[in-house]
Amino acid sequence: MMEVSNMAGRRALKAVLIDLSGTLHVEETAVPGAQDALNRLREASVAVKFVTNTTKESKKHLLERLHRLNFDLQEEEIFTSLSAARTLLEQKRHRPLLLVEDSALQDFTGIETSEPNAVVIGLAPEQFNYQTLNKAFRLVLDGAPLIAIHKARYYKRRDGLALGPGPFVAALEYATDRNAIVVGKPEKSFFAEALSNLGCNPNEAVMIGDDARDDVGGAQNAGMLGILVRTGKYREGDERKIHPSPHLTCESFPEAVEHILKNML
Amino acid sequence: IDSGDTGIKRGFRKAQRLKASDLQLRFCTNETQAARETFVAKLQRLGFDILVSEVFSPAPAAAAVLKERGLRPHLLVYDGLLPEFDSVDQSNPNCVVIGDAAEKFTYQNLNEAFRVLTDLEKPLLFSLGQGRYYKETDGLKLDVGAYMKALEYACDLKAEVVGKPSPTFFQSVLNDMGLQPHEALMIGDDLVNDVGGAQRCGMRGVQVRTGKYRPGDETHPAVTADATVDSLARAVDALLRQRQQTP
C-alpha cells in the first residue's frame, strides 16, 4: 500500500471534506476557533463539502444548528449518509421500515413506507427497543434488505459516550445471518458520491474528522488523505488503530486548516 | 415448551421414559429469563417429572465462574433471573453479564452496560448463551446472542459464552453424569447451539424439527446433525428401540 503521507508536499489539493459532529462542533457548542478557520479555508481556492453520518437530523436541522453556531455554509454543501440512503431506496424502489429519528424523516418524504420490504437503520435510540428491533429482525429474516445508514460504534453526547447504530446493525446481521448494505462513512461509495460534483479525484482531496476508522480510515481507503482531530469522540491512541495511520493527527479543526494552508496548497 | 407446539409436550412426557431405562437424563437449557426453581416448578405443574438437580442452565454456571475468578458483575438480565446471582457480590462491577433480558434490552440499559465496559481497564463481557433467536407463540424474537454481538461490536471485544454451545458447559454436564462425551447424545432444536456445541465436545447431536428448526438446517454449511427427527417423541422412540436391540 502506498505510503500516502510521503506524497503530501507535491499534491494539488482541490477539495476538503469536513466532518460535522465532533469536528466543527460537539452538540450545541462550536469547537473554539472553528468558524474563523472555516472562513480562512474558504479564502483559499479549494472546494469545501460537509460530510456527515449524523442520522438524527435532516439537512435543514443540521444547517440551522451550524448557522446558530455562526458557521458559514449552504445546504447544498452538506452531504449526509441519509442522502446516500435515499438515493439507494429510490434506485431499488424499496419500501422501507425506517428506524430513524423523527427529525430525520424529513429527508425521506415521498418514499412509500407501507408494507415495508426493506429495513433502514440510522441512529434512533427511541426505535432501538425490543419490540421494534424484533419487527425489523423478522422482515430481514424473511428476505428484506438491511440498509445501514452507517455503522458507527458510538458517538459523544454531553453525558458521555452513547451507542451508535453499528451495534444494532451487528445484532441484526448476526440474528439473520445476512450482511447489511452500508451507505455512510467509511464506505468508499460515500466518499466517491461526496466528491462527484466537485470535479476532483480522491487523490486531490483531504478529509478532516474525529473518527479514526470512519472519517480518516474510510477517506484514505477511498484514495484521499485524512487528518484526525483530537476532539469529539477521539480517544487517546485512536491514530494507531488504522493502517496506514492518518496523514496528520492534530488538536482540532483550526490546526488542521493551518496545516492545509501552509503545506498542502 | 413455550413455542406453543403441543407435540413438544408429548415428546417431553416420552422423554421421562428414558429415566426408567438405563440411560441417564439431563436437561440442558439456555433459559435465562427465569431462575431454575421457577421454570422447573412451571414444568412440574404441567405434569413433567423433572428436578432442579437435573437441569443445567447458564446462570448458575456463570455465578460459579464469577465467584471463582473474583469478578463482580453489572447484570443486564431479566428480573426473574436475578435470584441466581444473589450470592454474587455486585458492588463496584468489574465485568458485565448479559442474559435474555427481553424487554429490558432497552437502549438505556444497553448503553449503561456499554459504559461499564468502556470504563474498565480490562473489559469483560459474559453472555449467557449466544442464540440468534427463538420462537414464542407470538412470533420469532431476538435472543441474547444478538445483543452480545451488539456489545462486542460497540466495545471491540469478544464475549465469553456461558451455556450452550460452550464446551465448558457441556463438559460440566458430562462430569455431573460421570460420562465420557462418546457415551452421550444431545437432542435439541437449535442446530448450532445444541447439536453443533455437543458435537464439538465429542458427543453425538440429534436435531428435532420443532421450535427454531428451519428446513435450511438440513443443509447447513458448518453443522451436520448425526440424525434429524420430527420430534422429541420420535427421538425417544428410536433411542429406546435401539437400547432394546443392543445385546
TrEMBL record, chain A:
InterPro entries: HAD-like_sf, HAD-SF_hydro_IIA, HAD_sf, LHPP/HDHD2, STAS_dom
Domain STAS: 1-89
Keyword Transmembrane assigned: no
UniProt cross-references to Pfam families, sorted A to Z: Hydrolase_6, Hydrolase_like
GO cellular component: cytoplasm
GO molecular function, one term: metal ion binding
SUPFAM superfamilies cross-referenced by the UniProt entry: HAD-like
Keywords: Magnesium, Metal-binding
Cofactor(s) this protein requires: Mg(2+)
Family in the record: Belongs to the HAD-like hydrolase superfamily.
PANTHER family listed in its UniProt record: 4-NITROPHENYLPHOSPHATASE-RELATED, HALOACID DEHALOGENASE-LIKE HYDROLASE DOMAIN-CONTAINING PROTEIN 2
This protein's name: Haloacid dehalogenase-like hydrolase domain-containing protein 2
Organism whose genome encodes this protein: Gasterosteus aculeatus aculeatus (three-spined stickleback)
Automatic annotation (TrEMBL), chain B:
Compartments, record wording: Cytoplasm; Nucleus
This protein's UniProt keywords: Cytoplasm, Hydrolase, Magnesium, Metal-binding, Nucleus
Major localisation: cytoplasm
Enzyme class (EC, first level): hydrolase
Catalytic activity: diphosphate + H2O = 2 phosphate + H(+)
Molecular function as annotated in GO: inorganic diphosphate phosphatase activity; metal ion binding; phosphatase activity
Cofactor(s) recorded in Swiss-Prot or TrEMBL: Mg(2+)
EC number assigned by the record: 3.6.1.1
GO cellular component: cytosol; nucleus
Tagged with keyword Cytoplasm: yes
Family named by the database record: Belongs to the HAD-like hydrolase superfamily.
Function field: Phosphatase that hydrolyzes imidodiphosphate, 3-phosphohistidine and 6-phospholysine. Has broad substrate specificity and can also hydrolyze inorganic diphosphate, but with lower efficiency.
Stated name of the protein: Phospholysine phosphohistidine inorganic pyrophosphate phosphatase
The organism of origin for this protein: Gasterosteus aculeatus aculeatus
